[in-house]
Amino acid sequence: MKLDITTLEGEGAGSVELDEAIFGLEPRADLLQRMVRWQLAKRRAGTHAVQNRSDVNRTRKKLYKQKGTGNARHGAASAPQFRGGGRAFGPVVRDHGHDLPKKVRALALRHALSSKAKSETLIVIDDVKLAEGKTKVLSERFGKLGLSSALIIGGAEIDANFGRAARNLPQIDVLPVQGINVYDILRREKLVLTRAAVDALEARFK
């Protein structure tokens, strides 16, 4: 698969041959869904908790005698049905993560890249560097390229001025190539890869 390379100024900078094994697959929605679910579950803190009846500091004395009152039997004021009592069946601290094989995760990333290539929302850019970290300058250049919602993947390190200028733009995410992931690819309209990112991805999946 051949794709034209552009620059931040919108000028042509040659072309690149993309590996069909990475960018030419037929996207599978089931793989992408499994991967997104795994990512979102993994980042949940799981620190939600409530006080159940054993955690509430209330008297354990029997409220009234067992028989003869006409009321239900109760043995402690910490029962959930009482005001100030413990919570019944509330959330507990737990890990929401679940297993997903490494091969499935790698395959899902290739399918996410292929989905962008198939929908023609994949852009290869020569490099992402700016002389000054000004958001206004970068916004104008993105306007020429038609980027309003995009994930931009740079090389091993992101240029400091570019990262500073891009962090104030809504719906624009910038990540180094080692941080590329399925969820961030799918949540933005376009995927922008630098030439260095393409080389790194092809070396990673070789």
Q: What is the element string, with H for helices and E for strands?
A: EEHHHEHEHEHEH
Q: Termini separation (Å)?
A: 16 Å
Spatial strand sequence of the major β-sheet: 2-1-3-6-4-5
Query: How many DSSP-defined strands?
Result: 6
Q: Would you identify the CATH architecture of the largest domain?
A: 3-Layer(aba) Sandwich
Largest sheet: 6 strands, mixed
Q: What average pLDDT do the residues reach? A: 92
The CATH superfamily of the largest domain turns out to be: Ribosomal protein L4/L1
- Cα radius of gyration in angstroms: 27 Å
- Binned strand content: 5-15%
The class by helix and strand makeup works out as alpha/beta
Number of helical regions = 7
Based on CA inertia axes, which overall geometry fits? elongated
State the gist of this model.
Belongs to the universal ribosomal protein uL4 family. The chain has 206 residues and is α/β, with parallel strands linked by helices. 33% of the residues lie in helices and 14% in strands.
Describe this structure in words.
This protein has helices at residues 20-23, 29-42, 102-118, 135-145, 160-166, 182-187, 195-204, and strands at residues 2-6, 12-17, 122-125, 150-153, 172-175, 190-194. It contains seven helices and six strands; from the N terminus they run E-E-H-H-H-E-H-E-H-E-H-E-H. The protein has two domains: 2-42 and 99-204, 3-Layer(aba) Sandwich (Ribosomal Protein L4, Chain: A), CATH 3.40.1370; 50-90, no CATH class. Helix content is 33%, strand content 14%. By secondary structure, the chain is an alpha/beta fold. It is elongated. A six-stranded mixed sheet has the order 2-1-3-6-4-5. A hairpin with a 5-residue loop joins strand 1 (2-6) and strand 2. Helix 2 (29-42) packs across helix 3 and helix 4 (135-145) crosses helix 5. It comes from Methylobacterium durans. This is Large ribosomal subunit protein uL4. One of its GO terms (biological process) is translation. Pfam families: Ribosomal_L4.
